[in-house]
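Structure ticket #2291
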Amino acid sequence: MSSLPNMHDAEPIPAEARAEIDRLLLSGDLFRYTAPEDAPVALLEREFAALLGSKYALAVSSCSAALFLSLKALDLPRGAKVLIPGFTFAAVPSSIVHADCVPVLCEVGENYRIDMADFEAKLDGVSAVIVSHMRGHTSDMDAILALCDARGLPVIEDAAHSLGTKWAGRNIGTLGRVGCFSFQSYKLVNAGEGGILITDDAELVARAVILSGAYEHNWRKHMAPGDNTSELEEAFARWQNRLPLYNLRLSNLAAAVIRPQLAHVARRVRDGRRNHDHVAAILNRSPWIEVPDKLAPEERAPDSLQFNLAGMSAEDMRAFIAAAEAGGVKVQLFGLSTDNARAFWNWQFLDDLPELPRTRAMLERACDTRLPARLTLAECEAVAEVLVSAADSVMGPLRAYGT
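Resolution: structure written out below.
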């Protein structure tokens, strides 16, 4: 058995970032609007939009900020209802609250994807939808978009975990009106913090740019050669001085860290998928561990591993987590971890918090562990062995093998 890898660290920042970082540190020019043009943040926006195949991108301080700005840029009325899945991170309902809107939660199944019957049943009275591709798991986007298009509802994609994922050959984040991504340390591209939104809607991006903190006429520095100048200029002119500034900008230093990593996205996606599928195949041989299958149109870009525990009591599951940690693999069980920000019942800042029995049942046996793309297959096998052995140690050989 290979020794266990370091599961915590991300990949090193590419060496090619260092010269630009040193240049910025020597100049002190960390603010995106100091340079008259082609600041590192502006270049990042163009490069990211090109990578995903979108017209426009806006880099901001976090994916949460991108979600918030998307909602504000849609100009929803105060108190508008926004439908979200019950399995997501607390930042998603928080962004809705910050935007003076009201989250509406729908059920999520044991495969971590939106329960389409409950989703459809809760669409009446909703003004927008945020689809969280939680932990990189894509719900049925064909059905979601058809239902929302029929009602004229804008869809925001929370693609924090889904950079590089495709649905029916299209990049996740480009299916809805807006796509929002994260550059937090545990994501595919790592700047510690940071986020970006992409869209083809000039009106929406103009509003988002000004809201993000483009005071005076700094919005001009968001216009790249080849942009539809008249369309963007007219949109910016409509909203100049008419929107509050939330100052959620990204710094040039963060952009310098991010930009060289974009060239590594395809490799990281390939290696992450290889690692995930290799470990999943091993875990699925255990009677106590189930890794849900992907949906047919989905090409995943996993940055972690999720699995469900089967046939275990709450006491058994806690013992499994302890045994895995003793073996060197840190596992969180969403519904049994104290104050877990992904368990909807901990979102006590929401009024009239609903009960979602299907989602609760899933969260009470759904586990999550790091599985970085940088791991070798031998290291992945060592991780899988720890998890399978932990389950067998708790359930016992007689129970495990049915003898």
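Closing remark: The mean pLDDT is 95.
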